[in-house]
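Record type: monomer structure entry
Structure origin: computed from sequence
Chain ID: A
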Amino acid sequence: MNAYFKNIICQATGASSLYEMEEVQSLWSGYGKILRIGLVGSTYKSVVVKYIKSGEVSIHPRGWDTDFSHQRKVKSYEVESEWYSNWSFRCNESCRVPNCLAIESFENEVLIVLEDLSETQFCETRVAVSSIEIQACLTWLAGFHARFMKEEPGNLWEQGTYWHLNTRPDELAKMKDSPLKENAFLIDEKLYQSSFKTIVHGDAKLANFCFTKDGCRSAAVDFQYVGGGCGMKDAAYFLGSCLTEEECDSQVPVYLDFYFKALAQNLDNDKFYFQDIESEWRELFPFAWADFHRFLKGWSPSHWKINDYSERITRGVIESFE
């Protein structure tokens, strides 16, 4: 990190000096790092810094290193900067996100300085979850979707999620010919025609949530693919990220009921008629599941998430077009 960026961090936090505590993770395909930075002389003990350097096409671990892929990632960081600059402050305690302290660009580098959630009550992450953490994440998603219901995405992704069809032509082309490939655009159009669009997180997997120690509440990070869309995209993707195939059959309906109860509690009932939203989104849930399944079949055909449950849901979606 250059001296200019270090000075930006000190100015934003009032620190007299700083030091690197740890690398939290490297960014996908080598586009930069997420660092935890310790501070001296500041009211903040530490901050989390997302440092992005995206000047050249990088090597993708699965071989998706085309210029198209590169441009998608570059835009994703532009979207994330827009999110933290002009949107994130609108989130409340129902959908907690880290406070943004500074954003700065310099040539092909970007610096995003964020509140360190490990210094707040949202100090824990999970690699495995119980129903308590799943409910905490669904509560966050419901609060987020309610907060931005019917909002135009502005300078975010017009259609959020990192697997959106228009941004994944290479993966679609790699798919074997199948009814799912033939109907991919119909599935996408069905979701796009939702009457009740909101802002979706776009990458709502377990790794992007932080929890209170008891696991009852969560906050979310990583907003590279935030944008417009049906809230079921987040719900389907999240449940698929933390439930086994066997659990999906018995637990997905229960968790959907929980999500919609939380959505009803967070919606402004003077502006929206909840029953209409619930009716439409329940119908669209399997389409959202099939939409992500389409992405996986092209991106990583041997992925563990490709299972009989997803195949069965997808068959039902395809049959609905016949």
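Annotation 1: The chain has ten helices and nine strands.
Annotation 2: The chain has a mean pLDDT of 93.
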